[in-house]
Amino acid sequence: MPIKTVDLDSEITHLSILDEKGRVDEELEPDIPEEDLLDLFKTMLLVREFDERKEKLQRQGRIGTFAPVRGQEAAQLGSIYALRKTDWFVPSFRETAATIWRGMRLEDDLVYTAGYEEGIRFTKESRDLPIAVPVASQIPHGVGIAWGIQLKGADDVVLTFFGDGATSEGDFHEALNFAQVFRLPVVFLCQNNRWAISVPLHKQTHSKTLAQKGIAYGMRSLQVDGNDILAVYVATREAIERARKGKGPTFIEALTYRLSFHTTADDPTKYRPADEVKEWEKRDPLPRFQEYLIKRGHLDRDMVKNWTTAAVIEVDHAVERFERRLDGMGRDPDAIFEHAYAKNPPYVERQRREVEDWVRARREEGGGE
Amino acid sequence: MAGVTMVQALNQAMREEMARDETVLLLGEDVGVDGGIFRVSDGLLDEFGEKRVVDTPLSEVAIVGSAIGLALYGFRPIAELQFSGFSYQAFHQVEGHVSRYRKRSQGRYTVPLVIRMPYGAGVRALEHHSESREAYYAHTPGLKVVIPRSPRKAWELLKASIRDPDPVVFMEPKGLYRRGREELPKDRRKVPALDGAEIVQEGEDITVVAYGAMLYRAMEAVKTLEREDVVNAEIIDLQMIAPLDSDTVNASVQKTGRAVVIHEAPRTLGVGAEIAARITEESFLSLEAPVKRITGYDVQVPMFAREQLYLPSEERILQGMRDTLAF
Ligand SMILES: Cc1ncc(C[n+]2csc(CCOP(=O)(O)OP(=O)(O)O)c2C)c(N)n1
Ligand SMILES: [Mg+2]
């Protein structure tokens, strides 16, 4: 009766295709059409510009607080690109890049961030969930959707996003367990950006990897360089294909970094060494992708310049439309009472009329807000 | 400017209690190095070290659940939840255990912990950051629910909560965190035990019951009312939602004959409903008008652009008082 090592029947691989200088591993390099590569790159430029503009707008008090993407563009775009439009996208609260890729209009994001429900726009065909602020709370939803897909015998897949901090919440663990027990078509994409507000990864968990948390549930789990858009794409595509074929879920830990603040309400200089940020600036996903595209002959410096300008103009226009919409929107109370129930109970309707009367009375008095 | 803000007062209360009693410790997300996202625990890590000011991993259920264990073992933990909107992750620990260890062990074990959480609207925050759900906690027998109205009160009530033998859910009206300053008492050692409501202003014509951020609006509205209508209002700050001190309220209503209750939480089954019921039960013959509730509406708190339309405004409060007086 000796002590034996238990074979866990699993190992964790780490995938990287594009290094920090934009050099590619040609054996692993995916075959992505040039047009798509350039689209992804343009979106990266746009998201960067949009982040910066939002920060300015927030500082001016024109929008509320938000969570920037900077540094995590490759983790989001590489993975979301692998998803079909008819698949399901289940974000947390930092997935602006992925959401833009799915078709969200910048102006809607601004309207939302300015505190208006009118910024939330889903079509009937939409398979994107709204952002989920309570950390990890969306993960079981992704699992349930995948369960529905399985029950119906459809071939759709769910891609669920969350952060490193989320892996400390029960919702995460319980959801992963369900997903594997039922072998559901869901991919868990963890953006390990090394920080949960002020809490660094080493204080969040003593696990060597986050990927091994998936292994605990018997799930296929792996790590990728999250700042390498090609690696993220390859890993997610494979996971999605497996899920689509009924081979069950995958947990992907994308190693990345939050280059900016947590949200505009946060001051990272209080807890984060500047050196660490500098180190990660060198691994910025954008220049790396840019170098790759240039080396491949898809891109030249002039194009980068023009597209950067185009991104600025696109954001300018979005901001203009946003401001025009705010003007027209006023502060009528309907949005407070709509969509609370399928049909509001009578006392809620009376409350609605009460607010309407107040607003009308105020207008008649010529009072402002 | 003289005095301290509510944030500073809470900080001071924790600092003093931690210095006084070494079993007091603080745990929560971002409470240490960052000093709390609202800076309520600023400097405490430096002063008391990382064994007593603990940055935890991101899990509300483990924060509250392990605070229970610490309390069972003899510590007096202060568990900070970053927002009340994320307190539900720990709700089963609160309902299932915090509220009933005394009962479940026939008095052998108690969990004298404090669960602090910012709550309420008014700071232009994201979804889930503006709710006022004190009724969930007040509905759980065995818990005390405390809500301070001012820096001085925050200091006093937090200290009393830390010393209290029962578990306290301490809800901090974050809209008041940096609104106004007050001096703390000279003698810092004397702390009155938790004890019900406080009459903030005496009056004869109408009883105005409120707490937290709405108390200020009520006071502003009362000023206008007294100026324009020549009446006197008695203003009561509940301070504690549970146990609910309806004796103070009833004594007042038996004098004034009229009452309004103001809170930002939804109307239905809220604190106002309980107050109205207890007034009806005990002061029915004194009533000259129905008890009026001026509250948030029975829908989800809207996003921040419209949160002021959702919250009871001074105008709404004034109108409610006038309707009650004219009834
Ligand atoms: C349940 C819950 N607790 C606390 C918070 C406050 N909060 C918002 S984001 C965050 C950190 C999240 O870290 P991580 O999961 O790593 O995601 P990241 O912000 O790095 O993208 C915290 C504590 C929350 N939104 N939800
Ligand atoms: Mg993180």
Describe it.
Chain A is of the alpha/beta class. Chain A folds into 2 domains: 13-330, Rossmann fold (3-Layer(aba) Sandwich); 333-369. Chain A has 14 helices and 8 strands. Chain A has helices at 34-59, 73-80, 96-101, 106-113, 139-152, 170-181, 201-204, 211-215, 229-244, 274-281, 285-295, 301-329, 334-337, 346-364, and strands at residues 14-15, 88-90, 158-163, 186-192, 195-196, 199-200, 220-225, 250-255. In chain A, the strands form 2 sheets. Chain A has a 6-stranded parallel β-sheet, sandwiched between helices. Chain A has a two-stranded antiparallel sheet with strand order 5-6. The radius of gyration of chain A is 22 Å and the shape is globular. The relative contact order of chain A is 0.16. In chain B, the strands form 2 sheets. In chain B, strands 2-1-3-4-6-5-10 form a 7-stranded mixed β-sheet, with helices on both faces. Chain B contains 12 helices and 12 strands. Chain B has 2 domains: 6-176, Thiamin diphosphate (ThDP)-binding fold, Pyr/PP domains (Rossmann fold), CATH 3.40.50.970; 198-326, Rossmann fold. In chain B, helix 1 runs parallel beside helix 7, helix 3 (60-73) runs parallel beside helix 4 and helix 9 (246-256) crosses helix 10. Chain B is an alpha/beta fold. Chain B has helices at 6-20, 44-48, 60-73, 91-98, 101-104, 134-138, 151-163, 213-229, 246-256, 271-283, 307-310, 314-326, and strands spanning 24-28, 53-55, 76-80, 114-119, 144-146, 168-173, 198-201, 206-210, 233-237, 240-242, 259-266, 292-296. Classes of the chains: A alpha/beta (369), B alpha/beta (327). The interface between A and B is large, with 45 and 41 residues.
